[in-house]
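job 3f2a | input accepted
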Amino acid sequence: MSAKNRVMTALNFQTPDRIPTSYEFFWSEFIVKWRKKKGISSEVDINDWYGSDIIIEVADETFFPSQRKLLKEENGYIFQNDGWGRRNEQSFVRLEVLLSDLGLFEETLY
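job 3f2a | predicted structure (110 res):
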């Protein structure tokens, strides 16, 4: 049964071959590390790999989407303007360290 047929069958209150699944969203940083860890080429789609039936695409709903831009990357930090007119600082290094300390970082790559 295709993903579309599976979802439409469930929406019509019939029994599909399995429950339709959705993994919502994978961060691009996760996908890069996932491909490296699994040894998977960039041609393989992560949603196909895990059998995601529903993919939700949402438009940028910020007030000033044209103002969103990357300002700089420095020492594991990303500085950017968002679509609301704010300047943000994000650190993915801190998140990885925190997850590693909790023993969760490697588990997220499976």
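job 3f2a | Helices lie at 3-11, 28-38, 46-49, 92-101.
job 3f2a | closed
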